[in-house]
Write a structure and sequence with these properties.
0% strand; mainly alpha; 75% helix
Length: 72
């Protein structure tokens, strides 16, 4: 997959960040999850977010690898 990334796309992927509103929601859900206080709907929301962040982390790792191979 990393072979499909142009250097510019790879660089942009590595620079992706969550907006403050989204980060605040994640922090709120994480705090409740750590305390065992998430109702089922929010537990599902949090699970979806974590899965998405895991996927984004993998994409970023692939992008960094592509950048390293291209010498950027």
């Amino acid at each position: 997959m990393a072979d499909c990334l142009t250097p510019d796309v790879a660089k942009r992927l590595t620079e992706l960040r969550l907006n403050p509103t989204t980060q605040a929601r994640i922090d709120e859900l994480a705090g409740q999850a750590n305390e065992g206080l998430l109702p089922p709907a929010e537990r599902a929301e949090y699970a979806d977010i974590v899965e998405g962040l895991d996927f984004l982390g993998i994409l970023k790792a692939k992008a960094r690898s592509a950048m390293a191979r291209s010498g950027r």
